[in-house]
Amino acid sequence: MSVNVSNTRFFALIPCAGNGSRAGTTGPKQYEPIAGRPMVMHTLAAFAAVKRIARTLVVVAQGDGFFTRNFAPVTAAACGGETRAISVVNGLHELRKVGADGRDWVLVHDAARCLITPQLIDGLIDACQEDDVGGLLAQKLVDTLKTERGGRVAETLSREDKWLAQTPQMFRIGRLIEAMEQAGDSVTDEASAMEALGQRPLLVPGGPQNFKVTYPDDFALAEAVLKGRQR
Ligand SMILES: Nc1ccn([C@@H]2O[C@H](COP(=O)(O)OP(=O)(O)OP(=O)(O)O)[C@@H](O)[C@H]2O)c(=O)n1
Ligand SMILES: C[C@](O)(CO)[C@H](O)COP(=O)(O)O
């Protein structure tokens, strides 16, 4: 059964309060320069280009002065928590405080996925806006999948039904708050919180370029892609 989409709005929530401990940077990785500007500014530029997004809220760590200094055209809330899940829940409550309705949609997207494009965001909205549950960008597994025991292969699994979860992940704000609060502080994405409520989010093909900058080598790759797009 599809839902009435006429009055619902779309919000974006960008968790940006991590330390980037795997990235090997001196400060939080999301502010490292990539292709001429801080990583998170590429992420925000993609969302700014999607006109049907009513408002973008960036969740930063307490004491983070980046958005004050940079006067970025976004709302920043210093309500980041110990884990990504806590940052997201706090951000969702902040969205409700600034006027979002529980039935409005939210697209939660990692600041660290700075190669997201307006086309991918629009594609996710188009695919999910009439769905009862919502969904996420994801990438079908291309490699052969092994499990490991003691440094050796334990088993080769079928890759036919395996996808890598990406962001944005798009759900109704009210239901997502309920799901995230029940799932707890260590859940690693929004879809798994919804799954724990018995929901089956839509898998919407993203792309290999929408990777999360996580390890030191990822910065050069992200820079090459962004510079390629600027040409
Ligand atoms: N407590 C946290 C942890 C993460 N994030 C954000 O969630 C996104 C995905 O997290 P990840 O890439 O794992 O970032 P970090 O937690 O910063 O990295 P690491 O695990 O290497 O420390 C990032 O945009 C990050 O800033 C957040 O808002 N609050
Ligand atoms: C949400 C996410 O980017 C989907 O792949 C991922 O789960 C974030 O996890 P991390 O452990 O914070 O890197």
Automatic annotation (TrEMBL):
Species per Swiss-Prot/TrEMBL record: Caenimonas terrae
E.C. number(s) listed in UniProt:
2.7.7.60
Q: Does the keyword Transferase apply?
A: yes
Q: Which SUPFAM superfamilies match?
A: Nucleotide-diphospho-sugar transferases
HAMAP family with a match to the protein in the record: IspD
Site (described: Positions MEP for the nucleophilic attack): R159, K212
Asked if the Swiss-Prot or TrEMBL record annotates the protein with the keyword Transferase, the reply is yes
This chain belongs to the protein called: 2-C-methyl-D-erythritol 4-phosphate cytidylyltransferase
Record site: Transition state stabilizer: R22, K29
**One MF annotation (Gene Ontology) recorded for this entry:** 2-C-methyl-D-erythritol 4-phosphate cytidylyltransferase activity
Keywords, in A-Z order:
Isoprene biosynthesis, Nucleotidyltransferase, Transferase
